[in-house]
Structures are given as structure tokens and as C-alpha cells.
Amino acid sequence: MKVLKKDELRRHKMETQLRREIEIQSNLQHKNILRLDSFFHDHKHIYLVLEFAVQGELYKRLKKAGKFPEWLASRYIRELASALSYLHRKNIIHRDIKPENLLLGLDGELKISDFGWSVHSLNKRRQTLCGTLDYLAPEMVESRSHTSAVDLWSVGVLCFEFLVGSPPFEDTRSGTYERIAKVDFTVPPHVSPEAKHLIESLIQYLPSDRMSLDRVLIHPWIVEHASGRNNEGQNS
Q1: Which of 104, 127, 200, 209 is the most buried (most CB within 10 A)?
Q2: Strands 119-120 and 45-50
Q3: Which domains does the chain have, with CATH numbers?
Q4: 232 pLDDT above the threshold of 50
Q5: Which residues are catalytic?
């Protein structure tokens, strides 16, 4: 149950954002997207009844582990790419993909949650600066219009973070802005060449240069681990 206070929503002028979140999430059906079953309200609160993600937040799992083994990171990226591909086919951009917005289901499967910054974008291009700095694409930090390609950038950032333990552009606030704009990052040598190729194919300055989600799903690094190799202890 997600409980929201009406007076806080009014104070922060977030009524429209919440209506959009409910409208979008209540119409989504995908195994890697947290389901919104229903919602109701009283005179003080709005209540969202959400699918229960049994294993909790992926963020806490990552912080506890430090970083993920490549087979597990590959699994999460495959599930994330599948869910985002579904959203993009429905002309929905999530715009706030980060570990805190990813939950884990009964079998440890990834589930995208929190559609507060999501938008249904038939015209394909948006202007609003939103999301979390470490995961923002250059076109957002430079206040240019953006498309669903911002989600592709975030997938690359997450892949890096899963394998390294921290986002690739982590710095002071101004330093992070500058590094994102310059695409200033280095993949550490312990990351496999296949994973490095995927990361560098997604973290591209030009949106048109970023690898598509369809190609992510058939990337050698994804296919290798999806075949079941190197997955010992996956459910431990």
C-alpha cells in the first residue's frame, strides 16, 4: 500500500503527476513491472494498492552485496530491457530508472516501480527535466528535448553500477553534470569485454547512437547468461 497525503500533493503541485502515474501504471501488464491493482481515497489520503514485491528493494540488495556477479547483473538488465521495451511500444517513457525504483518479486525477478515521472508521449519528444541526476542522459542535463532514448542511457548506467558498485558519473553535483555532458567515464578492467561493450553501446552522447532495447536483448553478454551458464546459486 502506497499512502500519499493530499495536502502535501497540493503543496508541491503534484496532483497532475499523481493522476498521470495512476493512469499509466493501472494499464500495464508485464511480469517485470509492478502491478497497480486499485486505488481509493478519503478526505486526507490517497491509497495505491500495489503488487507485493516479496524480496524488497533491489537497491538494498546491491548495497549489501557491493556489486553483482555478471550472471546476476545480466539477468536484471535482460528483465529491465524487456519491461522498458514493453513500455516504449506503448509510447511510455519511464524517465526515472534507478536502483531505488526497482523491486524484486518472489523468484527474485526485477520489477519496475514508481511511475511518478513517467509520461505517455505520442509526439515522442519531451522537455521536462526530471529524474535523478546520476542517471540522467546528456540531453536532460543540457535542457534539450528528449525521447525514450533517455531510458536506454539509464540502462547503461545501471549495468555499470550493478557490476562496479557505484554509478559511472558519481561526483559532486556540478561535477556529475559536467561528466555526464562529456560522457566522462571509464569501465574498470574487472568488467568482462562483453559487458563493457554493452555499457559503452548504451552510454552514448547522441540518443541515436544508443543501442536499441531489441539489440540489448540479443547482445552476446545477455544471451550467454540467459542460457543458464554461470548461474550457480541464483536462488540462494
Answers
A1: 104
A2: unpaired
A3: 2-50 (3.30.200.20), 56-226 (1.10.510.10)
A4: no
A5: 96
Annotated binding site for ATP: 2, 51-53, 100-101, 114
Q: What is the pTM of this model?
A: 0.89
Give me the chain's average pLDDT, please: 90
Please report, in range form, the residues annotated as the binding site: 2, 51-53, 100-101, 114
